[in-house]
């Protein structure tokens, strides 16, 4: 999927790895700079597209193994810093925490260096010369964040098209998930486009109307 929108932010999705986790590559036209959200496992197609592009940052919506499998390779190739919410500060270095020891058949233990920068609720994050807003949206995991730019919301595993994130993994909470969705995401305008961690994009208005889990 690909969208040209306000300030011409270009958004490309790469479903990666055994769980088809969406990595998003954000770029501006006429620049060779990009930002990557959630570089998942088996990042080959993403790395091929990036080529010799400069990557300003890797932003993680949360640190479950399927969202971080490509962090190490991308960081080594591009020397770019990683942003992650404080509540999951020790998840990148610890395969037990990031869940990669739970399903060995999906690829085995994943560990990498800790994030360079911590994300916090309502933080303004300047990337590609644009200002993104960070929303702390826990529930699926304690450090889940959603990243908002204009009408674009990168929501990780909080809200999916006609579904929501599971809350049975360590640090998950159904109550917090509902508070995040109703108290933060559903405060956004109906036409806000949600780019989730898995599956197709959707809108806040569509989910408010049709999602059976909220
Ligand atoms: Zn997850
Ligand atoms: Zn996921």
Total domain units:
1
Poorly predicted tracts of residues: 1-5
The geometry reads as globular
CATH homolog superfamily: Ribonuclease Z/Hydroxyacylglutathione hydrolase-like
Kindly report the CATH topology: Metallo-beta-lactamase, Chain A
SSE topology string? EEEEHEHHEEEEEEEEHEEH
Please identify the structural class as seen in this structure. alpha/beta
CATH architecture identity: 4-Layer Sandwich
Helix content: 10-25%
CATH class: Alpha Beta
Task: State the distance separating the first and last CA atoms.
Answer: 26 Å
Proportion in β-strands: 25-35%
Q: What's the main sheet like?
A: 7 strands, mixed
How many E-type strands?
15
Short structural description:
By secondary structure, the chain is an alpha/beta fold.
Q: Could you characterize what this model shows?
A:
There is one protein chain. With 214 residues, this protein is an alpha/beta fold. The protein has a single domain, classed as Ribonuclease Z/Hydroxyacylglutathione hydrolase-like (Metallo-beta-lactamase, Chain A), CATH 3.60.15. It has a 7-stranded mixed beta sheet, covered by helices on one side. Strands 8-9-10-11-14-15 form a 6-stranded mixed beta sheet. The chain has a two-stranded antiparallel sheet with strand order 12-13. The protein starts with a strand and ends with a helix. The structure holds zinc ion (ZN) (2 copies). The site of one zinc ion (ZN) has 5 residues, from loops.
What does the secondary structure layout of this molecule look like, with pairings?
Elements: E1 2-4, E2 10-16, E3 21-27, E4 33-37, H1 44-50, E5 54-59, H2 65-68, H3 71-78, E6 82-85, E7 117-119, E8 124-127, E9 130-136, E10 145-149, E11 152-156, E12 159-160, E13 163-164, H4 174-183, E14 193-196, E15 202-203, H5 204-210
Parallel strand pairs: 4-5, 5-6, 6-7, 11-14
Antiparallel strand pairs: 1-2, 2-3, 3-4, 8-9, 9-10, 10-11, 12-13, 14-15
